[in-house]
Amino acid sequence: MSVVLRRVGGMQQHRDGHVPGLGFDPSDPGSVAARRSEVLALEEAAAAMLAAGTALQLRAHAAAYEFGHALDVAEGCAESAMHVRSIANEVGLLVKLAAGTSRPRR
User: Fold this and answer.
1) Where are the alpha helices (DSSP H) in the chain?
2) What are phi and psi of 15, to 5 degrees?
3) Closest to 53 measured CA to CA, from 91, 87, 83, 104
4) Could you tell me which of 4, 48, 58 has the C-alpha nearest to residue 28?
5) Could you report the per-residue pLDDT of 18-76, keeping only the tens digit for each?
6) Which residues are registered as beta bridge partners of 7?
7) CA 60, CA 17: separation in Å to the nearest integer?
């Protein structure tokens, strides 16, 4: 059993070989490289999901604007489009807040 000593900030961490729950052995370069690959793949997958979500949100916004415009044409006034756009903007803001990409105005 080997003891791994690392200095993190001003603290020292002592580890005995493989630490359960980490999914890798810090003293084994192959294990560290494999876990690093897994983490990077997970980050790439998350970025792809965020991009897909953003694309879907843009399509939904476009659909809301088209819907509002169609209502305006049918009714002969701009009130419907403004209402639909307002709702679409609120939903978009809520999605951004949930994703942590936007902050509410104060």
Assistant:
1) 29-75, 79-99
2) -130, 140
3) 91
4) 4
5) 555 677 888 999 999 999 999 999 999 999 998 898 888 888 878 888 887 787 788 77
6) 12
7) 51
13 beta partners: 6
Residue 105 backbone phi and psi in degrees, to 5 = -75, 145
Question: What predicted TM-score, i.e. pTM, was given to this entire model?
Answer: 0.48
* Length of the chain as a residue count: 106
Residues facing residue 6 across a β-bridge: 13
Task: Categorise residue 23: left if φ over 0, alpha if ψ from -120 to 50, beta otherwise.
Answer: left
Q: Cα–Cα distance between 96 and 103 in angstroms, integer? A: 8
Where exactly are the structural domains of the chain?
Answer: 3-99
In the numeric block, which tokens belong to residue 91? 């939903």
